[in-house]
Amino acid sequence: MHLTIGSILSAESLAQARALMDQLRWSDGAKTAGPTARRVKRNRQADLSSNAGARLKTLLESALAKHVTFNAATRPKRFSKLLVTETSDGGEYGAHVDNPFMGRGEARIRTDVSFTLFLSDPDSYEGGELVIDQAGATQSVKGQAGDVFVYPSTYLHAVSPVTSGVRRVCVGWIESDIPDAGDRELLFDLENLHASLSRQHTPHSPEMLTVTKLFANLSRRLSR
Length: 224
Known about the structure:
- The protein has helices at 11-21, 51-66, 68-74, 181-197, 206-222, and strands spanning 3-5, 26-28, 41-42, 44-46, 76-79, 83-88, 92-96, 101-102, 109-110, 113-118, 125-127, 130-134, 137-141, 148-152, 157-159, 162-176.
- With 224 residues, it is of the alpha+beta class.
C-alpha cells in the first residue's frame, strides 16, 4: 500500500522542526547507505547527536508514534533510527532498494515499510520527487511539508535531482507486526470500515461486534 498521510506535523511543530534543523551539522549522506546505494546517493545527512538534533528526533518520533492513521497503515513493531537529509545543487538518490535489515544486535530490524516525512514546502525547490517503481509503472511523490508518504520497502525507488532550492525530509523504516503489504492494506480497510460503522451503530451492536471480531482474529492470524 502506498499512502500519503496529511499533516503529521502541525504548523507549530513544523516551525519548531525547521528552527532545529537550522542548528544542525550536515555531512555526506553516502556514509549511511549500503554498498550499492552508496554509489548513487548524493545528499547530506543531519547529525542528530547534538542537543538540537536530539530535540528534533524526539519531536518527529512523537508525531509519528501518536498519529492514528500512520499507525493503522504501518502496524509498527519497531522503528529504525530516523534520518534527516537535505538535497540541493543537483543532488539526487539514484534507483535503489532499501536494505532488508538495518541496525545491529537488539536494534536490528527487518524493513517492511519505508516512509518519507516532508519538511520543505514543495514550491521551495525544483525536482526532488520521490519516484516509486511499480512493476513497469512509476509513481512520483512530492508531498506538502508535514505530510508523510508510506510504501513497502520492497520497491525500487529514487529521488530525482534537485535543480534549485533545498529539499529536506525525514526518512525511516518500520518492522511491522503485519509483514505482508497486502495484509496490512486489508486490516487498514477493515479498521476504516470499523470507524465508519461506529458512526451508525453502538459498540455492542451485532455489526460492530462482528467487525471487531474479524479485525482481532485476522490480526492474530496475519501477525509475526
